[in-house]
Structures are given as C-alpha cells and as structure tokens.
Amino acid sequence: MSPAIFLKSALQQFIDYKTLADKTFAQLGEKDFHFTPGEGSNNLAVIIRHMNGNMVSRWTNFLTEDGEKEGRNRDNEFNGQEESKSQLMELWEQGWTILFKALESLEDEDLDKMVYIRTKPLTVVEAVHRQLTHYASHVGQIVYIGKMIRGNNWQNLSIAKGGSTLFNEQMKKA
User: Fold this and answer.
1) Contact at 8 Å (CB) between 146 and 28?
2) Residue 82: its pLDDT value, please?
3) How many other C-beta atoms can be found within 10 angstroms of the C-beta atom of residue 51?
C-alpha cells in the first residue's frame, strides 16, 4: 500500500468513527452525558474528557515530542465533573481538530519515522494504528451507552437489526 493511500484511509477511518459518535451525541440531552451505566463504568463525559486529553497529548507536536505530554493529568480525566453538553462538545471538537491537523500535515516520507508514546518507540504507521484502535473502542462505548439511554427511541446509525435483506436490496437498486 502506498503511503498516500494509507494516510487517506486512516483519515477516513478517524472521520467515520467521529461521525458515529457525533450522531450518537445528537440524539442525547444534557443530562445523558452524565448517565453512568453501572458502578465502575465511565459516563460519556468521562469518555469525552479522556479522549480529548489523549488526542491533545498524542497529536500535538506528533513528530517531535513524546505523545504523553508532561502537562497531561490523565487521572483527572476520569474524575466526576459536571461540564455541560456544550462544554463537552468543545472538548470533543478540540481533540479531533488537533488530530486531523496533525494527520493531514503528514507527508509520505513521515510514515517510517519514529515517534514515542510514553517513551516507547513506534513508527508513525504503528502510532496511527494504535490511536485508531484506541478511539474506535471508545466510540463503541459511546454508541453503546447512547443506545442504553435512548432505548426504543434509538435511531440506528447503520443497518437496523433484521434489516440486512432490505438494505442489500436497496444497495442493488442504487
């Protein structure tokens, strides 16, 4: 695979995961972001705060500094706070903006460079994969919590249960 194809593919996958979460957030109200599914579970506010902290840390000066910045207080990302939905959406967008800016600035020759996350050396490709899988897992949590909150009022983000045949038929007609 060429470096340009990898970068384009990775960018699209990040966009697709962000879109799933965005569509979930659009279905939720103010209080929903602080709903905690169970003891020991994280609510959406915590996940957003954590993803923001991770994105800001990992993608700021991506090629030149360790991805775990000294100023990051990871433990604090998991403490209960009462941000509003709009404050949480600002954090959400801030993290993604930094990620997209860093990813879009990469050149083909950057893919073989070494970067560091917590002093662990990784190629740029490995670091991108690492972050993509990390964010995918959290977006899965976001969607699942959203579905729990909305229950029967959940608007599917993909093919509804039992809807594969109809979807496939519609795709053939398109």
Assistant:
1) yes
2) 87
3) 23
**Which range, of 22-26, 56-60, 78-82, 114-118, averages the lowest pLDDT?**
78-82
The predicted structure's pLDDT at residue 174: 77
Could you give the CA distance from residue 148 to residue 146 in angstroms, rounded to a whole number?
Answer: 5
Contact 42, 141 (CB under 8 A): yes
| Burial (CB count within 10 angstroms: exposed 0-12, middle 13-18, buried 19+), residue 89 | middle
What mean pLDDT, rounded, does the chain reach?
A: 95
Give Cα 27 distance to the centre of its chain. Answer: 17
User: Which own/partner pairs from 147-153 qualify as long-range (CB within 8 Å, at least 24 positions apart)?
Assistant: 148/35, 148/37, 149/28, 149/32, 149/35, 150/27, 150/28, 153/27
3-class state of residue 166 by DSSP:
helix
Per-residue pLDDT reduced to its tens digit, 67-97: 999 999 998 989 878 899 999 999 999 999 9
> For the residues of 62-127, what is the DSSP string, one character each?
TTTS-SS-TT--HHHHTS-----HHHHHHHHHHHHHHHHHHHHH--GGGGGSEEEETTEEEEHHHH
Residue type, 29: G
107: number of Cβ within 10 Å: 11
Which amino acid is it at 156?
N
